[in-house]
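dumping this here before i forget
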Amino acid sequence: MTISTDEFGKLFQTFEREAFRLETLDDYSGSSNPEMLRAFLAGEPQPAHYNQRWVEDVRASTQAGKRMYRVHVVTRPLTDYLQFELGWGYTKNQTAGEEFFILDVTNRENPVSGIPDFWMFDETRVVSMNYRKDGKFLGAELQPEVLKWVEVRDTAMRHAEPFSEWWGRHGDQ
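structure:
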């Protein structure tokens, strides 16, 4: 069932324990701020206001004892967009308590192949996300079956490693 952007946004305000995201795309530039991507690619310093609203929302959740975490499926070499997302986004979001994990499928089979991006809230509500090829967000669908998505999350987490460890080895590639 398709849900509105407002309904989707409310899930971030009302979850009680944890919010998990699986990211599967190499490019979300169609949904990001093109000026920030340009600045990153030009080697400019990260503006202090970059992604600040999300950071504040995450901090409020994590300070309330809630967990927010993600697994991103990647293949090296990283796209310019992923260099930007991981280099600016993940490193900043971590300061608010968001946790990141990388499932690098460069030299192995993808254990969650064919699964779209999704957010799962408290293991009770799952919203799959639809994107164009250029990463432009098209909309979200509330999924009726939760157990399948819990299994996907668990599989992704079993095969992923903490972002900081992975980034330490591959962040400059």
